[in-house]
TrEMBL record:
<keyword id="KW-0464">Manganese</keyword>
<dbReference type="InterPro" id="IPR001352">
    <property type="entry name" value="RNase_HII/HIII"/>
</dbReference>
<dbReference type="GO" id="GO:0004523">
    <property type="term" value="F:RNA-DNA hybrid ribonuclease activity"/>
</dbReference>
<comment type="similarity">
    <text>Belongs to the RNase HII family.</text>
</comment>
<dbReference type="InterPro" id="IPR036397">
    <property type="entry name" value="RNaseH_sf"/>
</dbReference>
<keyword id="KW-0963">Cytoplasm</keyword>
<dbReference type="InterPro" id="IPR012337">
    <property type="entry name" value="RNaseH-like_sf"/>
</dbReference>
<dbReference type="GO" id="GO:0030145">
    <property type="term" value="F:manganese ion binding"/>
</dbReference>
<dbReference type="GO" id="GO:0043137">
    <property type="term" value="P:DNA replication, removal of RNA primer"/>
</dbReference>
<dbReference type="GO" id="GO:0032299">
    <property type="term" value="C:ribonuclease H2 complex"/>
</dbReference>
<dbReference type="Pfam" id="PF01351">
    <property type="entry name" value="RNase_HII"/>
</dbReference>
<dbReference type="InterPro" id="IPR024567">
    <property type="entry name" value="RNase_HII/HIII_dom"/>
</dbReference>
<feature type="binding site">
    <location>
        <position position="107"/>
    </location>
    <ligand>
        <name>a divalent metal cation</name>
    </ligand>
</feature>
<dbReference type="GO" id="GO:0003723">
    <property type="term" value="F:RNA binding"/>
</dbReference>
<protein>
    <recommendedName>
        <fullName>Ribonuclease HII</fullName>
        <ecNumber>3.1.26.4</ecNumber>
    </recommendedName>
</protein>
<feature type="domain" description="RNase H type-2">
    <location>
        <begin position="9"/>
        <end position="198"/>
    </location>
</feature>
<keyword id="KW-0378">Hydrolase</keyword>
């Protein structure tokens, strides 16, 4: 079972999903869990089954002290770059918390100060601490749901399955059909960018 970071103060865990995708938003979540929160299957969302992620989403939303989710869309990613967009998403998710945290723990190694609240960056934090793992689950489930929704608009890219990640199938569809309003134009969408007509 993953640990609580510190049960004596109010901790918000934050994480994002979709950073390496070619299409769709980067989605961030922030979660504050109660002191005695326990869940045996909670872990880094990437290693959980779809069924477990969906069950955990409902469990976290029902049991969390507070949570917030934010999408940062393609135009903003192209304007400020993916790292800044990821951090902006985490800040905006933190803005949505109904309780103010006393400390923020962040998955990864990059963050910018948020409202003078102390923070710690933790590499692979989503596999170490419950609140970051909970944020990873919410970020992934909300982003996946968004990608499944826009799949209906452009089914040829199969976002329902690949969620916008750079799979061979996704790159082949970009080569064949070009790009959509959901693609990130600042990303290397094909090995040879000259083939894409913006």
């Amino acid at each position: 079972m993953l640990k609580l970071y510190n049960s004596k103060i109010i901790i918000a865990g934050t994480d994002e999903a979709g950073r390496g995708c070619l299409a769709g938003p980067v989605t961030a979540a922030a979660v504050i869990l109660p002191r005695h929160f326990k869940n045996k299957i909670l872990n880094d969302s990437k290693i959980l089954s779809l069924k477990n992620r969906n069950e955990l989403k409902a469990f976290i939303e029902h049991n969390a002290t507070a949570y917030g989710i934010e999408h940062i869309f393609m135009e903003e990613i192209d304007k400020i770059n993916i790292l800044n967009a990821s951090i902006l998403g985490m800040h905006k998710a933190l803005d949505k918390l109904s309780t103010t945290p006393q400390c923020i723990i962040v998955d990864g190694n990059k963050f910018k100060e948020y409202k003078e609240i102390p923070h710690e960056c933790i590499i692979k934090g989503d596999g170490k601490y419950q609140s970051i793992a909970a944020a990873s689950v919410l970020a992934k489930t909300y982003r996946d749901a968004y990608m499944e929704e826009i799949h209906e608009e452009f089914p040829m890219y199969n976002w329902k399955k690949n969620k916008g990640y750079p799979t061979k199938e996704h790159r082949a569809a970009i080569e064949k059909f070009g790009i959509t309003k959901y693609h990130r134009k600042s990303f290397k969408l094909l090995p040879d960018q000259l083939k894409i007509d913006f």
